[in-house]
Amino acid sequence: MARESAVDQLSPEHLELLKVRLEDSGFQDYQQLTDWLTELGYQISKSSVHRFGKKHEQKMQAVSLSTQAAIYMAERNPDDAGALSSTVITMMQSEFFNALVQLQSLDDTDTDPMVRMGMLSKISKGVAELSKATVNQKKHQIEVRDKANAAADKVEQLASKGGLSGKAVQEIRKAILGIAD
Predict the structure, then answer these.
(1) pTM over 0.90
(2) Closest to 86 in 3D by CA, of 97, 96, 75, 74
(3) Is residue 164 part of a domain?
(4) In whole angstroms, what is the distance from residue 62 CA to residue 132 CA?
(5) pLDDT at 172
(6) How far apart are CA 33 and CA 9, in angstroms?
(7) Assigned domain for 152 exists
(8) What is the spatial distance between Cα 87 and Cα 133, in angstroms, rounded to a whole number?
(9) pLDDT of residue 22
(10) DSSP assignments along the chain, one per residue
(11) What integer pLDDT is reported at residue 28 of this predicted model?
(12) What is the number of structural domains in the chain?
């Protein structure tokens, strides 16, 4: 398993404060952060703080990009049939796959077998939950489609009884079902 970072020595409170200070400083001024940690009684090098800051910045950027993608999808696609949920599930499946690939690439001699099994167990559980979510998402999509078809059928019957032309009835049906010309 990977060697423990010097930043891992920090108490949870100090770790959170470090993250806040990194974000507030725009992930700069590592010497000042190192001096602050020294004042708190830690012996952590500037390069260790920088490595931690780089990883934290990448995580923050990934969260920001995911949030922006979700907002974009929500604005572009009304979530009538769960398009946004489906996209999020796909993104999560991709992340679990990446985690599994990284786990497989770890050198077996560096990783405690029990730790490795624990990681595999967590990934497996996550994949199982996503699979369940996918099944539920598909059921929801079918329900939405069936309700739209039922509504279109009912409107078609009423419109035909009301004397509308066949073409007008078909236009109404297409509008209800969201079918473009």
Answers:
(1) no
(2) 74
(3) no
(4) 25
(5) 80
(6) 15
(7) no
(8) 12
(9) 94
(10) -PPPPGGGGS-HHHHHHHHHHHHHTTS--HHHHHHHHHHTT----HHHHHHHHHHHHHHHHHHHHHHHHHHHHHHHS-GGG-HHHHHHHHHHHHHHHHHHHHHHHS-GGGS-HHHHHHHHHHHHHHHHHHHHHHHHHHHHHHHHHHHHHHHHHHHHHHHHHTT--HHHHHHHHHHHHT---
(11) 93
(12) 1
Residue 124 lies inside a defined structural domain of this protein: no
Query: Does a structural domain hold residue 67?
Result: yes
Side-chain-side CA neighbours of residue 150 (13 Å): 6
Burial status of residue 67 (CB atoms within 10 A of its CB: 0-12, 13-18, 19 or more): exposed
Q: What is the mean pLDDT of residues 66-72?
A: 73
Cβ(156)–Cβ(169) below 8 Å = yes
Distance of CA 91 to the CA centre of its chain: 6
Lookup: tokens for 171: 């236009």
pLDDT for residue 140 = 83
Q: Which two tokens stand for residue 18?
A: 């470090």
Of the two residues 173 and 10, the one the predictor is more confident about is: 10
Measured between alpha carbons, how far is 174 from 107 in angstroms, rounded to an integer?
57
CA nearest to 177, candidates 155, 145, 154: 145
- The token duo for 92 is 């999560």
What is d(CA 155, CA 176) in angstroms, rounded to the nearest whole number?
9
Give the domain range for residue 66: 1-76
